[in-house]
Amino acid sequence: xxxxxxxxxxxxxxxxxxxxxxxxxxxxxxxxxxxxxxxxxxxxxxxxxxxxxxxxxxxxxxxxxxxxxxxxxxxxxxxxxxxxxxxxxxxxxxxxxxxxxxxxxxxxxxxxxxxxxxxxxxxxxxxxxxxxxxxxxxxxxxxxxxxxxxxxxxxxxxxxxxxxxxxxxxxxxxxxxxxxxxxxxxxxxxxxxxxxxxxxxxxxxxxxxxxxxxxxxxxxxxxxxxxxxxxxxxxxxxxxxxxxxxxxxxxxxxxxxxxxxxxxxxxxxxxxxxxxxxxxxxxxxxxxxxxxxxxxxxxxxxx
Length: 303
Known about the structure:
Layout: E1 12-13, H1 19-29, H2 38-43, H3 45-48, E2 51-55, E3 58-64, E4 70-76, H4 82-96, E5 103-106, H5 108-117, E6 120-124, E7 130-134, H6 135-140, H7 147-159, E8 162-166, H8 172-186, H9 192-206, H10 208-211, E9 214-220, E10 223-234, E11 237-245, H11 252-264, E12 270-272, H12 280-287, E13 293-295, E14 298-302
Parallel strand pairs: 11-12
Antiparallel strand pairs: 1-2, 2-3, 3-4, 5-14, 6-14, 7-12, 7-13, 8-9, 9-10, 10-11
Helix pairs in contact: 8-9
């Protein structure tokens, strides 16, 4: 590994050129949580200002909220990780003056390890739990529990002549235009979180190839009206990072969800569709697709 790789406590701001190193570490870990992909880190860099370093064989990642509160993502690497977690939290405490700095969105593997080691507060973060679905369920939409989804999809299919295509470079401008229209529909200018999401979508669309993303679009009358971007998260799971559709076209969100899973991810057993952030409408929508399970995440602090 290169000698210019940052070593804790000398963190380096995360850049696209860091992908190969960080992606390899994350792939070796085989994560279940959606945060632990280089794509997620990179497209939200403008919001969280992530920086990274290596320590004791672990990848360390720190970020900062818009309010200026510094925090860390869980160290990624071989165990035992209790010593590096203590060191990271102590460093954050000294650096920021926070009484109880936190490692946020830690997975169950780390939470179980730290409970056993003692000396840590481990608190579930329900709003950060990821929703994981069986891919076959999202493709077939079978049975009574998907009755409403089938109705939405069939209504769309009856009403609109459309085509699905894998994302190509020539689709980028149309996807950016759709995102701009989506922001006008949602009044992004009135919501800082939506503005940050808009920035994340634009960053992803400008770096699809460099990030190794897989995408799909739905065209109606030759115009992109929906798109989705995702990648493999682990050996049996794909993660859908972004999904946008014209909200004025009934059934279109159901269609891009179903088509993207069928055309791009039929070989993956599961689909991770990320978290609901505690938003009631988003939680209702994600639950309506009947997840196979929720991937728990935890806040870690020193006891």
